[in-house]
Design brief:
Elements: E1 6-9, H1 11-18, E2 29-35, H2 42-61, E3 70-76, H3 81-93, E4 99-102, H4 106-118, E5 123-125, E6 141-143, H5 153-163, E7 167-173, H6 176-192, E8 195-202, H7 210-219, E9 223-227, H8 230-242, E10 249-252, H9 260-266, E11 274-277, H10 288-299, H11 305-323, H12 329-337, E12 341-343, E13 346-348, E14 350-353, E15 356-360, E16 365-370, E17 373-378
Parallel strand pairs: 2-3, 2-4, 4-5, 5-6, 7-8, 7-9, 9-10, 10-11
Antiparallel strand pairs: 1-3, 11-16, 12-13, 14-15, 16-17
Helix pairs in contact: 1-2, 2-11, 3-4, 8-9, 11-12
Length: 397
Amino acid sequence: MKKGSLVILTALMFLVLLAGEPIAGEAPIRIGAILPLTGEQAEFGAIEKNSFIMGLEEINRAGGIKGRPIELLFEDDCGKPDNGRLAVEKLVTQESVVALTGGYSSAVTYVMCAVAQQLKTPFLVTTGSADKITEQGWDYVFRINPPVSEYSKALNSFLSEIVRPTSVAILHENTLFGQSGAKEFADQCEKAGIKILVKEGYESGSTDFKPLLIKVKSARPDFVYMVSYVMDAALLMRQSMELNFNARLFVGAGAGFTIPDFARQAGPAAEYVFSADLWTPNLPYPGAMEYYNNYQKRFGSVTGYHGAEAYASIYVIADALRRAREITPEAIREALTYTDLMTAFGPVKFVTYGKKKQQNALPTFLVQWQKGALETVWPKNVSTKPYAYPVPEWSSR
């Protein structure tokens, strides 16, 4: 897809192709979806777009909303805040969408939410996770995924019960996502009595992390926590192996550490790497495994929590549309506030706690790469394989 292009996924066309006959009735209900479809984050955008399409087709095959199909209008933000802002303005003022969803990069999502609030159009955030997105008091912004400060809930219990570390090094990309995630995890470590030996940011897309890793290796932390997207995540691990830097464990904060491309790019250095995760297909959520299997069958690749978030988001919007007193932005916003829905991503209910407003609260999980597969290892009641710990040194693998 070319940058800035608008792809209209017309539900009527899907019904002709997939169900034989279109839904009779009024015009489609138009919803905007904004994702990074080109640029460095395009792989994630593609997973989410595919998942939106899957959910859209299922909803429309089942009769749509009050006899009307949903129509998704996709815009490419290219991973840039200015593009995201323009996309929101275009979809609301020119395309007359009644609600918005999507949002991958936190920096882009924050800008889009501010514009949606100004234009009084509900925005269901799918992935953008910086805490401040739901800390502005915005009443048109809802978020289905946990904030980045909560990604490490399962990791924290694993650390306290199994690892019992005394020190950590925290590395993060210098983005809103990276800085927010690193700050929140550092605060959690301090409360747990874990000494922070190194806390340092880097520019995303760097090609040489060795000076930074040498500094971390000299500090000799018990473990390393990294907030990184996929290319940086893979390179950090490859260069840690090249430097023979042995920490007791390496842990990622989700994002780039949980997709197949990480294992492909990192190669042998991916083995035994842990990561926080927000979803796995073996969780006891209705439709979770079915979504996972259907995605793999249709697209020939695996999906993860990013896709599950998108798949669930279109169902949350459809649920709000069914309950809304009328199909207007204000009525949809009101309906979203009363959401109480079980999805393939888990339960969705927008609540207020601490500084957060209209935030979905969910458990998180710990996964580990074992023999090229991403296994759920914590908590034990949902694990697919036992955790591998202590992690062997590079030279003994």
